[in-house]
Amino acid sequence: MIKINNLSKSFNGKPVLQNINLTIPDGKTMVIVGQSGCGKTVLLRSIIGLMHPDSGSILINNKDITKMSQSELFQVRLDFGMLFQGAALFDSMTVRENVGLALNEHTTLSREQISEKVDERLSMVGLDTIGDKYPSELSGGMKKRVGLARALIMDPKYVLYDEPTTGLDPIMSEQINKLIMDTHSQLDVTSIIVTHDMHSAFTVGDIIAMIVDGRVIFCGTVDEFQSSDHEYVKRFAVLQFGAS
Amino acid sequence: MINHWIGKKILTFFMEVGRLWRLFILLIIATRYLFGRMDLVLKQMRVIGVNSLPLISVVSIFTGAVTAWQAVYQFNGVMPEGMTIDFLGAAVNAAILIELSPVLAGIVIAGRVGASIAAELGTMKVTEQIDALETLAIDPIRYLAGPRFVAGWTMMPVLVIYSNIIAHLGAFVVSKFLIGVSSATFFGSIQRYFSVYNVYSGLIKAFIFGGGTALIGCSIGFNTEGGAEGVGKSTIKAFVFSSAFILIADYILAMILF
To answer: Which B residues in the span 121-140 are in contact with A, Cβ-Cβ below 8 Å?
Structure first.
C-alpha cells in the first residue's frame, strides 16, 4: 500500500502541493487528474523519490521513503516501474538494451535469460520485432510501449504512469489504455496514473483523485466521480468530453 | 544593484565549487564499483582517448613544428648561430614535455570531451533519461559519470605521451628540412639535456587536467536545465570552465613542480 500523508512541496516559495493525503490500496489503479501545472507530476515524482517534499511522508509498505538514504531508496525503487511522459528511452541504446538494462544491472541472469525476458516483455506490448532499432527510429506510441516494457522488466509491484496517452492519436491512446489494463490484470500491480485525459481515467481507473492548485479536492471511485456534485469536478469532466 | 549582482555571482561560484567537490567525492567512492564494470570504462576510454587521436595528432604536429621554428627566431640575436642549432632539440623537447603537450592536449580535450560530456549528460537530463535511470534503481553518478571520470583521468596522460611523440616529430621535420639541423644534432641535443622529471611533470599535469575536465563536464551536464537552450549553454560553460581550470591549474602546478 502507498500512503501519502500531509505532503507539501513548493518551488521558489510558490506552493505546488499542499497537504496532500492519499491512500492507494494494493492491486488498485489510482488515476490522478487535474489541469496542467496543478502538481500531478510533482506528486508522482515524489512517490518514487525523484523529488524530495518539503514536509509530509510517503509510506511504501509502511516505510517512509522521504527519510530513506540513497541506497535504501534504490532498494525500494526495485519494486517500482515508471513510464515517463516522453518515454525517456536511452537514445544511445537499442530497444533491447533499453528494456534489458535493469536486468543487466541488478540480476545475475545470463545473457540468454535476459534476452528471453526482454522478448517476453516486448511481445507483451506488441513490439517483438523492433529489438534492434534505436529510439530515434520509433513513433511516439512505440516509444511509450517500449517505455512500458522497460518499466515492467523487473516485475514491479507498483507502476507509475506520467501522462501515458498525451500526444497520441485516439487509436494509439486506446491501445495504451488496454496495455495498462492488461498489465494490471496479468502482473497484479498497483498503478498510479497521472493524466488529464478523462476518457483514459474512466477506462483504466479504480479510484480517481483530482488535484486543483496543489490540493486534493476529490478522491473516490469512478462512479462517485461521475456522479459528484462538486462544481469543479463536473466542469472538468464535461469540458473534457464536450458539453453533453 | 551592482552589489547584489556581484553577491549573486560569488554565491553561484561557490555553489558550483561545492557541487564539484560533492561530485568528486561521490566519484571517488564510485570508482570502487567500477572495477566490476570495466565494460563501461573501456567504452568511455575509447570515446575520450582513441577518438581524440586524430585531433591530438593535428594539434601536436603543428605545435611541434611551430615551436622549432619560433625557437630559432627567438634564439637569433641572443645566442651565437651555432649554439642555436645545438640547443634547438633540447629547447623544443623541454617546451613540449613540460608545457605545450599537456596544456594544448588539455584544451583540445576540454573542447572535444568536456563539452561533449556536458552536452550528452545535459540532453539526458532535460529528456528525463537520468530520472529514468534513477527509477530503474541505477545510480547515474556510478553509471554515467564514474566511467567518464576514470576514462578522463587515465586517458589524458596516454594522450599526452602520444602528443609528445607527434610534437617531437613535427619539430624534427621542420628542424631538419626547413632549418637545416641534422638528425644527429637534433636528437643529440635532446639526449644531452633530457630530464625524466620533465616527462613526469607533464604527465602529472595531464592526469589532473583529464580528471578535472571530465568532472566539470559531468557536473555541468547533471545540472542542465531549460531544454535545448540549456544544453547549448551547458556545452559552452563546460568548455569555458574546463579551459579556465586547465590554465589556472597549470600555473599552480608550475609553482609546485618547478
So the answer is: 123-124, 127-129, 131-139
C-beta atoms of A84 and B131 within 8 A: yes
* A44: its cell numbers: 508522482
Interface residue of A46, A50, A72 to substitute, partner B, most B CBs within 10 Å: A50
Q: Which residues pair with A10 in a beta bridge?
A: A15
- Do A80 and B135 make contact, defined as CB atoms within 8 angstroms? yes
Cα(B132)–Cα(B4) distance, rounded to whole angstroms?
A: 38
> Percent of chain B having pLDDT more than 70?
100
What's the one-letter identity of residue B115? A
List, for residues B161-217, the tens digit of each pLDDT value. Answer: 999 999 999 999 999 999 989 999 999 999 999 999 999 999 999 999 999 999 999
Q: Where are the domains of chain A?
A: 2-79+158-241, 90-155
CB-based contact B139 A74, cutoff 8 Å: yes
Contact A211, A39 (CB under 8 A): yes
A216: which 3 cell numbers? 486534493
Residue B78, amino acid: V
Secondary structure class of A216 (helix, strand, coil): strand
Give the gap in angstroms from C-alpha B151 to the nearest C-alpha of chain A.
Answer: 18
Does domain A2-79+158-241 correspond to CATH entry 3.40.50.300? yes
